[in-house]
């Protein structure tokens, strides 16, 4: 018997038993409780998610019960999905294009594929809204999870332009952009900065937004 510090040390006898049985004292994997979701079930989970990426953990639990005769909780499903590399995320919104719009874009790209874009200036505008409730959370009490949001949220519009030489300028405003405001932005924030980069030899590229093709914008 080996006594250390007034107490019996169980480490040495246990290590001797390990050495006799497995030739070393390293921890042997697989001694714990086996997971309910097997590798074969992992393949099935991946197939379900590829077919429907918006499937919920409750729906997966129901499908495992009916199709695989496997009873697990939705928390077990979520833990297993995290082990497989899946995350519960909120997808970014992207504009939806019709087939006609896609075809027009392809034809435009083919017609201008040989253009020299080294002296081109591109611009666009977008909006930013404060206190947007678009972030997913992991919580033990999902039904009680809240986020205080002001009734009148601030929204800011931003116009920006860039070229191969870098950013020209960004301009922020809070009113709705129309043709008149668009022309004012071009006069005050585009022309002077573009001439600083390219002199008088440059081209301006924009999309076919209604305010870009308005009468006052075309006259400008």
From TrEMBL:
Domain of life: Eukaryota
GO molecular function, one term: DNA binding
Domain Transposase Tc1-like: 48-114
Protein name per Swiss-Prot or TrEMBL: Transposase Tc1-like domain-containing protein
Organism the protein comes from: Adineta ricciae
GO biological process: DNA integration; DNA transposition
